Write the structure tokens for this entry.
Amino acid sequence: MQCSRHVLLTWVLAASLLAACGTRDENRASREARRQFHAVMEGKLRQLDRGIASRAYAAEDSAHVAALRKQQRTLQGQLDEMADASDQRWLSLKESLETEYRDLREQYAAIDRTSSDTSARMEPDTMGTSGSMQTN
């Protein structure tokens, strides 16, 4: 009887240790996923910042650029807040940040397209393709 208790206790202890190791591995993977997300999002925000900075020189875009910069600062703040968030809060912030980043990126793209369209209309036609085509 005494021997079977020791065996049972040994099995329980071994199972507990294995469960703890599994939890540590999950925590390590979770921390790595957080670091990776943070690094990728930082890179995306830097890239967007360069694009916004290039638009800042166009006077007609100044109000749009100011709004984009404000949203970008908000996203950066949320990204910084994620570092200390609980797992549940982190997932919520991640979803929110991804959605808001997509919205910001689409707003930037819309401004960029509008500016490109305006520039294209203002540039002279150097290829001689404007006007009506003649058919023979």
Observations:
- The mean pLDDT is 75.
- The longest helix spans residues 2-55.
- Residues 31-118 form one domain.
